[in-house]
Amino acid sequence: MARTIKIKQGFIEFAKRRKGAIELINIQVSEKRKGYGTILLRRLEETIGKNKTIYLFNRKENEGGRLFYESNGYQVIALIPKFYTDNFNPEWGERSGDAYLIIKHL
Ligand SMILES: CC(C)(COP(=O)(O)OP(=O)(O)OC[C@H]1O[C@@H](n2cnc3c(N)ncnc32)[C@H](O)[C@@H]1OP(=O)(O)O)[C@@H](O)C(=O)NCCC(=O)NCCS
Q1: C-alpha dihedral (17, 22, 27, 32), degrees to nearest 10
Q2: Which amino acid residue places its CA nearest to atom 31 of ligand 1?
Q3: CATH code at 27?
Q4: Is the whole-model pTM more than 0.85?
Q5: What is the mean pLDDT of residues 28-52?
């Protein structure tokens, strides 16, 4: 079951299973790069607890997302080809559908 941590500037959705899985994180456009995403990650990591692994998938083209996770101690461990099937979006154009598997051991 997905859980959500909300703050005024955004939210993070995750599942707390044997491993923690981040499903979605989003910060309001006007509030980006002010540290709120990092605050949400820290709160999530406290909820998941020590000696656990958190994982997530990040669209290959989402470089900002990847850099955000890497700056918070997360590591890319694999590239999964054609992970997403919604490869076309009118706003973005064509995308590969490839995703990085990113993890952090707590
Ligand atoms: C990715 C996201 C959650 C980051 O949240 P944020 O509150 O802007 O991030 P923070 O301010 O905590 O950033 C911490 C650090 O991460 C890195 N970072 C964050 N966004 C970045 C970007 N777009 N490009 C490069 N580095 C970035 C930087 O090192 C940043 O530190 P700095 O601002 O001092 O340089 C936010 O941009 C967002 O909601 N994006 C849209 C949804 C999305 O892509 N989600 C991730 C995949 S599900």
Answers
A1: 130
A2: 33
A3: 3.40.630.30
A4: yes
A5: 96
